[in-house]
Design goal:
- By secondary structure, the protein is of the alpha/beta class.
- The chain has a domain of about 160 residues: Rossmann fold.
- The chain is about 45% helix and about 10% strand.
- It is built from six helices and seven strands; from the N terminus they run αβββαβαβαβαβα.
- It starts with 14 loop residues before the first helix and ends in a 30-residue tail after the last helix.
């Protein structure tokens, strides 16, 4: 007499049940992604509203587009705010950042240097990070400037939507950082630019958090053609107040 198996085979899932489970997984991931996006959007907005201006070792202004040595409206807005903070006596140094695209005659940092100097900031008080092709590279090079000059604390200037990512990168580089966003940048005034900036920052944060890369892109950097002061180590200067 044949022995019957003690195990009972479970019925296979029907295609309808498989589709139901797949839709459930998709729904969970969609809701989770939407919640994460909403929270990140709120944090970008929240940090962008905060002005933490205080006494620091250096004011760091993030680079933006320049046109043959003339700052774009976005870069000019950042520089104007940084110069205002410097003239309030909040730091002995102003650091301009940003490299250049292939074919450009000036880097973003050089453009910032010329602009700040023309508006009364002493040349001895301006340091440049002029090789960074994106925010992450600029922040790494700013860290090198800090090490060379014995600096520890910074007030970062950029657009409102940029500040959360800037502070995250600065803190990951070991810089004690606060933000003071400009409130005159076109990226924070024009509704279309606000939306585009927010989408860009959401992508930039995700890319940095998950793969340690930067969504910003710039051209190849090159040596300073004008012989302006760079980020290379030098004795600390005593700036004019």
């Amino acid at each position: 007499m044949a022995r019957r198996s003690g195990a009972t085979k479970k019925p296979r899932l029907t295609w309808g049940e498989r589709l139901r489970d797949l839709l459930l997984v998709v729904l969970v991931f969609t809701l989770g992604g939407a919640s994460l996006t909403a929270y990140a959007t709120f944090r970008i907005w929240q940090v962008g509203q905060q002005d933490g201006r205080q006494q620091v070792d250096a004011i760091v202004v993030l680079g933006a587009a320049q046109y043959n040595g003339r700052p774009s409206p976005v870069l000019a807005a950042r520089l104007d705010h940084a110069i205002e903070l410097y003239k309030e006596g909040l730091a002995p140094y102003l650091i301009t950042t940003g490299g250049k695209l292939q074919g450009d005659n000036f880097t973003e940092a050089q453009t910032g240097y010329r602009y700040a100097k023309a508006r009364g900031v002493p040349a001895s008080a301006i340091l440049m990070e002029d090789t960074g092709r994106n925010t992450l590279e600029s922040m790494e090079h700013v860290r090198a400037i800090f090490d060379a000059h014995g600096l520890h604390t910074a007030l970062f200037v950029s657009d409102r939507s940029h500040m959360l990512r800037v502070l995250r990168l600065a803190q990951d580089q070991g810089i004690e950082a606060w933000s003071s966003p400009t409130d005159t940048s076109p990226d924070d005034i024009n509704s279309n630019l606000i939306r585009n900036s927010m989408v860009h920052e959401l992508g930039g944060l995700g890319l940095y958090i998950f793969v340690s890369a930067d969504a910003d892109f710039g051209g190849d950097s090159a040596a300073d053609p004008a012989g302006l002061p760079s980020a290379s180590p030098r004795p600390a200067a005593t700036p004019t107040p």
